[in-house]
Specification:
Chain A: InterPro entries: Fatty_acid_synthase, HotDog_dom_sf, MaoC-like_dom. Chain A: It comes from Nostocoides australiense Ben110. The complex is a heterodimer of chains A (about 140) and B (about 150). With about 140 residues, chain A is α+β, with helices and mostly antiparallel strands. Chain A has a single domain, classed as Roll (Thiol Ester Dehydrase, Chain A), CATH 3.10.129. Chain A has three helices and six strands; from the N terminus they run βαααβββββ. In chain A, strands 1, 2, 3, 4, 5 and 6 form a six-stranded antiparallel β-sheet that branches. In chain A, a hairpin with a 4-residue loop joins strand 3 and strand 4. Chain A is elongated, with a radius of gyration of 16 Å. Chain B has about 150 residues and is of the alpha+beta class. Chain B has a domain of about 100 residues: Hotdog Thioesterase (Thiol Ester Dehydrase, Chain A), CATH 3.10.129. Chain B has three helices and five strands; from the N terminus they run βαααββββ. Chain B starts with 14 loop residues before the first strand and ends with a strand. The chains are: A alpha+beta (about 140), B alpha+beta (about 150). Chains A and B meet through helix 1, helix 3 and strand 2 of A and helix 1, helix 3 and strand 2 of B. Strand 2 of chain A pairs antiparallel with strand 2 of chain B.
């Protein structure tokens, strides 16, 4: 059930949530999203084009971060707007990596019962998404 | 060949329709670590007011990607895909993508900005089910200049 608008306040925190990401995760994401760029799967190829290792799809990171706000909303269909900049790579070595996601309610719109949530996502201590915000339709 | 700035404002032929089924949604949801039952369980989705299971918010990119290929693979557009970095992404959902949808997507080049030898290109894809708007995506890609 979707979260009630009346129960939410500005400054409310979401998470943090830690999400593991391995090479298998990226193969699954490549197949599900149709993005088969080898920099997300093939270590040799990634290194040959100057990357430190396999890197996660930016869109995997964005999608994984969205789960924090979807779960908070109580219904993934309530995320009506979602946007981000990609500010750094999530490097995924053979033994995997972790994405840490947290959020905060930045503003509430009484008229539409919509909340704007700002998300922070970091990997290996580095911020990987910039200006990542979601607008959620509450009840 | 440099990025062709004459493409600003150009719309490409719509692609699709593509059928959305529960397996596609479940695979995408699992890959991004989503566990909300509205992606996996039709009963849960109906209880939330949907016709069938719904996609996670970023699955719209799958259809954006199919539509924007018409642009980025156009040889006259001058886009060297090996030099492309994803800079920014935005989604506006008019309603969730739902199993049973037959989606069409059409890409328009909204802007091309040259800066420091790089090209920043913003493309918009309108995703529709027949006449009904479903989602609008805005993607900014950066085509890095040659050294």
């Amino acid at each position: 059930m979707a979260r009630a608008f009346a129960s939410v306040s500005v400054g409310e925190e979401l998470g943090p949530k830690t999400m593991p990401v391995g090479r298998g995760t990226l193969v699954d994401y490549a197949n599900a999203s149709l993005d088969q760029n080898p920099i997300h799967q093939d270590e040799g190829f990634a290194k040959s084009v100057g990357l430190p290792d396999v890197i996660a799809h930016g869109m995997w990171t964005m999608g994984a971060a969205a789960t924090l706000v979807s779960d908070w909303a109580g219904d993934a269909g309530r995320v009506v707007e979602y946007g981000t900049r990609f500010t750094a790579m999530v490097v995924v070595p053979l033994d995997g990596a972790e994405l840490e996601v947290s959020g905060v309610v930045k503003s509430l719109d009484e008229a539409t019962k919509r909340a704007t949530v700002e998300l922070t996502a970091t990997a290996a201590g580095q911020k990987v998404l910039g200006r990542c915000t979601a607008v959620v339709q509450l009840d | 060949m440099p990025v062709n700035e004459d493409y600003v404002g150009r719309s490409f032929p719509p692609v699709g329709p593509y059928a959305v089924d529960p397996a596609m949604i479940a695979a995408f949801a699992s890959a991004v670590g989503a566990t909300d039952p509205v992606h996996f369980d039709a009963e849960a989705a109906r209880a939330a007011g949907y016709r069938d299971v719904i996609a996670p918010p970023t699955m719209a990119v799958r259809f954006d990607q199919l539509a924007s290929r018409e642009y980025v693979q156009d040889p006259d557009a001058g886009i060297d895909y090996s030099r492309v970095v994803h800079g920014e992404q935005r989604f506006t959902h008019h309603r969730p993508i739902t199993a049973g949808d037959e989606l069409t997507a059409q890409t328009t080049v909204d802007s091309i900005r040259m800066a420091g030898g790089h090209a920043m290109i913003t493309v918009r894809s309108e995703i529709t089910a027949g006449e009904e708007p479903v989602a609008t995506t805005h993607s900014t890609i950066v085509v890095r200049g040659g050294e």
